[in-house]
Design brief:
Layout (H helix, E strand, L loop, with lengths): L3 E2 L10 H7 L15 H21 L6 E4 L2 H13 L5 H4 L3 E5 L4 H12 L4 E4 L9 H7 L4 E7 L11 H10 L3 E5 L11 H4 L3 E5 L10 E5 L14 H4 L7 H19 L2 H19 L3 E3 L10 E6 L4 H10 L2 E2 L15 H5 L4 H5 L1 E5 L6 H20 L10
Parallel strand pairs: 1-11, 3-4, 3-5, 5-6, 6-7
Antiparallel strand pairs: 2-8, 7-8, 9-10, 10-12
Length: 394
């Protein structure tokens, strides 16, 4: 049976370059980067080389990079670090946080936690295409807004938000801008200055690196209250001994991602995604794309298969060796429909009928052939067991 991994938006295989970079630090080359001896100095060099690689990938300065364990931690540090650091907030009245309704749970739940601590929260809607309207953002930017946080590429439907325009609006209103770029890194070119991001999150395991290594870009001279106290690591912004192996892997895949962007790898994968989308829409009647057809990364294909339970289709495809998802990996254990799809206006039945295919390195034409062969048959089997009159809403 052919094995096809089509869940790259959840995580990716650790690539050989990362494994090779990590291997020495899982054995003889151990060390604590805070130690003053030669082994400590060697460890510090590894950390700073990784920092420089991540900075180069996003067009930042090395001192603007704060290492974290996960993208979720980076998002938490961005929101809590800024909002708790508002020493002028009470006097100026700037204590409000603005986010979109389709942010990753690590932003949504952090924002709700901050709201419970007395920080006003505005959650902005998106249209049925999953896109934010900059005019809606502009109307929300009153003089009490401290921070706007918007995801660049949505992890469930792949929509690309107009983040440059939103960042400019935030700055014009006197607010800071945070961008969750976890799904954008490695797929889109990133230059934080051009983007206008004061803070930007990314995660190594979406790039072929190990889980446990991520980063937050923090613009110079921006005050950030740490989540973890107890040490001077990361310029006192995150205490704790660095994971040398994980950071070596992160540095390796950051440099690799930059090379692959320059070589046009996203275009190759995007062509596979467009072929997958066109093939599934043609082979599976009563199926539609969730999200905008053009303003999206084509490697994320989220489809509503009417009359089908998405979870059942996931398991049918898994039996055929095809790994897909019904939404965010961070929300997989939660009951109920996707908050992203319901925020886009899908009825619960349509949200439950939706499945996400996400392509990445290692996928090829033969993988698409197998998905296009196995999926229509699985959909037909499941529809035969359900009410044939069920349709996806227009």
């Amino acid at each position: 049976m052919r094995e096809v991994y089509a869940d790259h938006a959840a995580t990716t295989r650790v690539v050989p370059e990362a494994l090779a970079a990590m291997a020495p630090f899982l054995g003889a080359a151990f060390g604590n980067a805070s130690s003053a001896h030669r082994r400590g100095e060697a460890a510090r060099e590894v950390v700073e080389e990784a920092r420089a690689s991540v900075a180069m990938l996003i067009g930042a300065l090395p001192e603007e990079i704060v290492f974290t364990a996960t993208g979720s931690e980076a998002n938490n540090l961005a929101l809590k670090g800024v909002m708790f650091g508002l020493d002028h907030g009470r006097a100026s009245g700037r204590r409000r946080l603005v986010i979109s309704a389709i942010e990753h749970p690590s932003v949504l739940e952090t924002a709700r936690h901050l709201e419970s601590r007395g920080f006003p929260l505005t959650v902005l809607p998106v249209g049925p295409d999953g896109l934010m309207d900059p005019e809606c953002v502009a109307r929300a930017l009153r003089d009490d807004v401290a921070l706007v946080s918007v995801m660049w590429v949505n992890n469930e439907v792949g929509t690309i938000q107009p983040v440059r325009e939103i960042a400019a609006l935030a700055h014009a209103a006197g607010a800071l801008f945070h961008c969750d770029a976890v799904q954008a890194a490695g797929r889109l070119p990133i230059a934080v200055a051009e983007l206008g991001a004061d803070l930007l999150s990314l995660a190594g395991h979406k790039l072929g690196g190990p889980p446990g290594a991520a980063a937050l870009h923090v613009r110079r001279r921006l005050r950030l209250v740490p989540l973890v106290h107890g040490g001077q690591q990361e310029r006192s912004r995150r205490a704790g001994t660095e994971d040398l192996a994980a950071l070596a892997g992160l540095g390796a895949v950051a440099a690799r991602a930059q090379r692959r962007l320059a070589a046009g790898e996203p275009a190759r994968l995007g062509a596979l995604g467009e072929r997958l989308l066109a093939g599934l829409l043609a082979a599976c009647p009563q199926t539609r794309l969730n999200g905008d057809a053009t303003r999206r990364v084509p490697v994320i294909v989220n489809l509503c298969f009417s009359g089908v339970d998405g979870e059942a289709l996931l398991h049918e495809l898994d039996r055929e060796g095809i790994s897909v998802s019904t939404g965010s990996a961070c929300s997989a254990a939660r009951p109920g429909p996707s908050h992203v799809l319901t925020a886009m206006g899908l009825p619960p039945a349509d949200a439950h009928a939706s499945v996400r295919f996400s392509l990445g390195e290692g996928n090829d034409e033969a993988d698409i052939d197998w998905i296009l062969e196995a999926t229509p048959a699985a959909v037909a089997r499941l529809r035969a067991m359900n009410d044939p009159g069920v349709r996806c809403s227009a």
